[in-house]
Design brief:
This protein has 115 residues and is of the alpha/beta class. Helix content is 19%, strand content 41%. The strands form two sheets. It has a four-stranded mixed β-sheet, covered by helices on one side.
Length: 115
Amino acid sequence: MHGICHVEIPAHDLARVRKFYTEVFAWDTHAMDDNYALFKTPEGPGGGFSTYQKPVENPGYNFYIEVADIPGALEKVKASGGEVVKEKTEISPDHGYMAFIKDCEGNMVGLWSKS
């Protein structure tokens, strides 16, 4: 109880955002209607893409997607219409690495890996 159970990511274009997250992170997505699509991640909570809210470039919060290879993920981001905001950066030897991207809709998203 009390854990994060659903995340919503704002989008302008559901088809484009579904394609981006499927190509870059291998998320399973399906449209519910013209304004909402669900996604399921390989691990962790799933959520939805919604056109009811506008994408946010600089939110007061961040969510991070765990990846095995940050440089490889950054290449996929660029190839799929996203933008690299901050390259792979060490957090600390004990806490791994991070990077920041903007997805194809302009949302700021963090990436994290142990190595």
